[in-house]
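Form 12-C: Joint structure prediction
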Amino acid sequence: MSADRLAGVGVSPGAGYGPAHRLVREIPEPPRGSRHGGDAEAERRRAERALEQVAADLSARGDRAGGEARDVLAAQAMMALDPGLASVVAELVGQGVSAPRAVFEAFGKYRDLLAGAGDYLAGRVADLDDIRDRAVATLEGLPLPGLPQDPPEPYVLVARDLAPADTALLDPVAVAAFVTEEGGPTSHTAILARSLGVPAVVGCAGATAIPPGTRVLVDGSTGAVRLSPAEEEVARAMRADADQDALLATVTGPGATADGHAVPLLANVGGPADIAPALAAGAEGVGLFRTEFLFLDREDPPTWEEQQDAYRAVFEAFSGSRVVVRVLDAGADKPLDFLPPPAPEPNPALGERGVRMFRHYPDVLAAQLDALARAAEGTSARVQVMAPMVATVEEAAWFADACRTAGLPSSGVMIEIPAAALRAADIAAVTGFFSIGTNDLTQYALAADREAGALAGLQDPWHPAVLDLVALAASAAAAAGRECGLCGEAAADPALACVFAGLGVTSLSMAALALPRVRAALARHTLDACRRAAAAARAENSAAAARAAARAELPALAELSL
Amino acid sequence: MAERKVTVMSEVGLHARPAATFVQTAAQAPFDVTVAKFGVPPVNAKSILSVLALDVRQGETIVISAEAEGADELLDRLAAIASAP
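Section 2 - Result
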């Protein structure tokens, strides 16, 4: 039988095994006027059982999560079992309305009541919509919307395609593998999977028809997807995967090409939880310390002491090494209550964010820089500070000034706006170093919103236009005697990492899990091979052709199953 | 008809945890229990959605009512929950 085997393109190596979870973004509204067959009592019982099922799932999730989440989820379970809701459902079903439509309309009634009660209940309205969608999905036999919450075991995430918005809240430990029906080797799914170290197969025809819960074995190297495999087959695949990891683990030490050209491999750190994995993976420092975790989901900025303690924890963990801190990158997809944009923004990605926001709130920047300077005192970490979203020389100079005032000797800028890459030589004259942010650089170079799933095809760092911008920034930095690191998710692609080294990028920073593969890929190729791969990629006129051309110059990737 | 008139003292009003505790307690009663806010018709005290939609804030007064033998003990418990700081 061939239906138990599917095939796609392996884009993130490794073996993954677990129950399939089909990602659905929205549950369609049951059509107005849909009726049941005539047995109102049976239909009412069906609706009741679906609501009980949703309540039981919510309570079970709460019990697994414990703490505060238990209370929140118990309250949501109470909503599903609400007697007022049940009587509206019963009344509608009594009039002949189908169970899914009756549930939808009954929730609608309470939704209007809560929405009318003011801002305070806005969060409850979102909860109610979620419970409604779960009940309707249960009745219609559809997969539940969104990512599984607190799954009991790692699952295989199956989707038509994945957009950054779908995966922002993804817990990498909870995912065994990704399988998407669409997408290519350069899609967001592929980049994300590599940066998380999760095996992935894309362009897999028939993937979205895999019944939810089916146990799936995914080979992220060959692209094979096996449904309900035998136990021996799973054990064999997992053993081979462990052997491959062991082979990669034999490549240790600082990042360097085969001929000894050093390319320091650093880790992206977004909070205290990322420190241990980064150290375990042999990171030579931190290339991107995101500080948003201190600021998100709160009404007031963190205190000076709170900031200082959090920074010092990272500096001490990496004593003697480089730690590149990005100051708060607020705005766009990361709005903060206490830093509202000065005016409503029709397009936040092109609005007040990053360093632009600090021009309106210089005190918040001064407080952060001061906390960083104090935290750096007494540690041996080489602390460097950089500003996000710099477009002009004037902004770069303003930020360098602010850092000097705070007593921070090393300040730099992120290159993520095409204008900054195009005029990198001017910016290099007023700043200490560059760090290229490929996610935003790609978004802005191709004018393709990262949040827009339909534009996934354009959000591709292999695009020669993006590679050209990287090359401009790296060569301007070299001419000025400055370092030019790179810290986007693209650095986690072993082939792109070699291309970036070939373009003159001086260090690569990525999710810790991606480090062993990138280290092994660099170690097997000379700097000259990397340069040839970079030139071959830039000579092409599409992302796909650029990738193929670069890989042709990097033969050891295939030997390493990368 | 037994009733209790109480001022809600919790900082979050009759929302979040106080609302959940209030409704869970009311749900144990074998008889109907209602809760009303001044100027708003009474709602089923066993319905979390109705109680939330009542949107009772800190400092507002509510009337909890039941029409049954032996409702006093339950109403006292509900009044205590609603008036707890």
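Section 3 - Comments
The interface with chain A takes residues 15-17, 19-20, 23-24, 43-44, 46-50, 52-55, 57 of chain B (CB under 8 Å). The helical segments of chain B are 16-27, 48-54, 72-83.
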